[in-house]
Amino acid sequence: MMADSGTEEIAVIGNIDITSSELENNIRNTMVEKGTALLRKMEISVAEADKRTGKNAVNIQETYTVYLIETRPVDTVAEGTSPAPDSVWRRYSEFELLRNYLLVAYPFIVVPPLPEKRAEFVWHKLSADNLDPDFVERRRVGLENFLLRVASHAGLSNDKIFFLFLTEEKGWRDMVFETGFQAKADSRLKALSAMFRVKNPDKRFTELKHYSDELQAVVSQLLRVRARVADRLYGVYKVHGNYGRVFSEWSAIEKEMGDGLQSAGHHMDAYAASVDDILEEEEHYADQLKEYLFYTEALKAVCRKHELNQYELEMAALDLTSKKQQKEELVTGTVRTFSLKGMTNKLFGQETAEQREARLQLLEQQIDEGEETVKEKNAECDEFVKAAWVDIEHFKQQKDSDLKEALISYAIMQISMCKKGIQVWTNAKECFNKM
Q1: Are the C-beta atoms of residues 429 and 244 closer than 8 Å to each other?
Q2: C-alpha 426: how far from its chain's center?
Q3: Which of 100, 114, 235, 426 has the most Cβ atoms closer than 10 angstroms to its Cβ?
Q4: How far apart are the first and last CA of the chain?
Q5: By three-state DSSP, how is residue 64 classified?
Q6: pTM of the model
Q7: What is the C-alpha separation between 265 and 271, in angstroms, rounded?
């Protein structure tokens, strides 16, 4: 079901101020309520892109691209009434803001990635300009895919900020900042510290992080190879234009062979010209691979959050152990470790019975609080792992299906392209036979 428009702030798993009821609600959305995906109630599309000029935050004139998001209730489509869709214009930076919010609000979910901001892994004849019409069109498709990925996710689709992003032209930005997600975002430095200092990492998440690194390396290498192949293919196709030019010039000096040579030249010219559309189509298959290249960062984000949770649990347990040891030393009068308090006592004499009793009461209070904190951190870690692993398993199934489909489609396209090449030379052969 769609998120209500109340004022309750979006909960953040792993943040120290979250309540257990909010945590349970978030996990239930992800694990159970799979029939509430927004796509069952609303059609979503990024219909078009438009280039605009205006002043940015520092009052400098700039040219940028905006994308038209259209939404329409599924019920009206089914009934055949098809009213005009609701629409809002969004810049790429607004999509980034939405995704950054989702990463913080749902740290246990592999949040779908955005398409690239600037073209990477492209063949040399393709423009890498982020205002190039062909690139803008591919990014439009990628942004629509991002919205559909979020809208089809059982947990993310219920988020009220996401719904406002789709439907409110202006108010959604204020709402997303009111959640305070920026203050709750974990810094990279904090995540890096946790990664190196956690003593008992979960083997499953460690293996997942290694897998993410390897998948990122493999897909990057695959995209580089594809770009190099595309460059060579472009050269081969365009060189066929030289055949066309030579055959046409030759036909002008031949009487008996002229018509056959000229026809063969036309086939070669058409073949040379077809490569632009072919490689442009091929870029769409490359974009499918790029999506999973960027998905690897989303996987690593889940792993980093788990390491932070684990580190906070270990620090809480370590602090509790220290407090218990201090209590034991105070009760028995035996000092096992060096402490500033012990050195002070040696220098200035023992503390009074009243001071000792007050310190004992304080330690007992701190131990009670520490035990409660460790209990909460343990529960938080367990719930995070349970929710995250359900989502990761779902992601793996989606990845296997999507990449299989993309690679098969790419192979079919290459086979079709080779068949067209064979057909061109078969046609040329027939032209030569008729001479």
Answers
A1: no
A2: 46
A3: 114
A4: 72
A5: strand
A6: 0.79
A7: 10
